[in-house]
Amino acid sequence: MQNENQLNRRSFIKNSAGVAVALSLPTIIPARAFGANDRVSVAVLGVHGRGQNHISGFSNLKNVEVATLCDPDNVVLQKRAGEFEKKYSKKVKTEMDLRKVFDDKSIDAVSIAMPNHWHALATIWACQAGKDVYVEKPGSHDFAEGPKIIEAAKKYKRVVQHGVQLRSSEAMKEAVKHLRDGLIGDVYMARGLVFKWRPDLGDKGTSPVPEGLDYDLWTGPAQMKPFSENYVHYNWHWYWNYGNGDIGNQGIHETDLCMWGLGVDTFPEKITSGGGKFLWKDAQETPEVLSSTYIYPDQRKIIEFEVRPWMTNEEGGTGIGNIFYGSEGYMVVKGYDFYETFLGRDRKPGPTRKAGGDHFKNFIDAVVARDPSKLNGPPETLHLSSGLAHLGNIAYRTGRSLTFDPKKEKFVNDKEADAMLSREYRAPFTMPRNV
Q1: Fold of 170-355+387-414
Q2: Alpha-carbon distance 96 to 77, whole Å?
Q3: Which secondary-structure segment (H or E) carries 353?
Q4: Which of 89, 273, 340, 386 could crosslink 395 through cysteines, CB 3.0-4.6 Å?
Q5: Cβ atoms 323, 195 nearer than 8 A
Q6: Smallest Cα–Cα separation from 179: which of 256, 242, 262, 240?
Q7: Are 333 and 28 in contact, with CB atoms under 8 Å apart?
Q8: How do residues 224-253 score in pLDDT, each as one tens digit?
């Protein structure tokens, strides 16, 4: 007997506007029993930017085969396929439509490096199709998508890794252990910093869709807007329809480490955000400057997060990273793989370390073992770090301090803010009611 999800996927295709070229999404495939010598077949979805790191990261692993590259821009896709063949001396399959990848039973796992507005739906479709998933940060474009991803991973027994590579850094693991063990005393505050070079975008207006780009597929579940070079291929980050600003871009690494380091496993009760556009009169919608504060009154913890553009000073020697404050000292994190500590009133240098890790390998190890507990970046932490960024953006967009109920995951008596926890999906790229 067909289950509801199988029927929903078939209805999706039957009712789609492009029925002539649409493909049925696959039925659920039983989990493969991987042996010691099995190779995991991976498809990389989205190969313009961060996807290039996915290609090399997985290709460097002995028990992985990057079998398929997928991108709705065929010009970019064929360029990457040519580079792949030249670098690895073998051809790779190419697909423009991610649904064809999900329909391919030879693919064991997908690696999602598409724009943010696609992350959650692609992850859930992949889980339904029996694929394990490595999904770039933020794992969700909207707060309400996080629980859906957690639900899908559990329901379909899939391994889902959130692409926050600092979770696999040996230095960061050691740093968090120091925080747990009381090296800097009672840790009460975490500060996340994103001070990045962000230029004037200008306003390129609208123009015809470039040859080779399937703009309908690129837009996917987002609302359709006339094509603009301001969106494709990178600057979609700065438009609410597709991205989440820098707090939901680079900032996810920092929000993730803030929560991990403080040891909080729930959302804050008080959120305040302020900022705006002060430098450029361009088409960017998200703020150039953003300062967000998250308060956990019962746990006596506070998180501060700040985005600054262009030229600025560093704090404690870091501009992309974190600072943790305790009763006996503080810790500075630079990037994803270095920390240093300063102890006592005289700020005496304490433990420090620089060491990375392999987040892609951690994912593959969990896939082969069929053991999600091995993951360093599971769906639960995906929801926490991505969700924190979304709450900050909602406070900024409403222009007021907000009170949040962490148990219900709703704002307190605020229908306007609650409406921003989710979005309307564009048919036929809709989120399943029951994943």
Answers
A1: Dihydrodipicolinate Reductase; domain 2 (3.30.360)
A2: 8
A3: strand 348-354
A4: 273
A5: no
A6: 262
A7: no
A8: 999 999 999 999 999 999 999 999 999 999
pLDDT number for residue 225: 98
pLDDT above 80: residue 32:
no
What confidence tier does 35 reach under pLDDT thresholds 50, 70, 90? low
First to last CA, the chain: 17
Are 69 and 52 in contact by the 8 Å Cβ rule? The answer is: no
**Count of residues making up the chain:** 435
Domain layout of the chain by residue ranges: 4-167+361-378, 170-355+387-414
Buried b (16+ CB within 10 A) or exposed e, 88-115: eeeebbbbbbbbbbbbbeebbbbbbbbb
> Which tokens in the block code for residue 408?
């219900």
Distance CA 341, CA 347 (A): 8
Structure tokens at 91: 């051809």
> Strand, coil or helix: what is 160?
strand
User: Which tens digits make up the pLDDT trace of 382-400?
Assistant: 999 999 999 999 999 999 9
Among 196, 402, 201, which Cα is nearest to 292's?
A: 402
CA proximity to 353, closest of 364, 341, 367: 341
CATH of span 4-167+361-378: 3.40.50.720
pTM beyond 0.90, yes or no: yes
Backbone angles phi and psi of 189, in degrees to 5: -140, 140
Residue 156 above 90 pLDDT?
yes
Count of other CB atoms within 10 angstroms of residue 33: 8
Number of neighbouring beta carbons within 10 Å of residue 346? 6
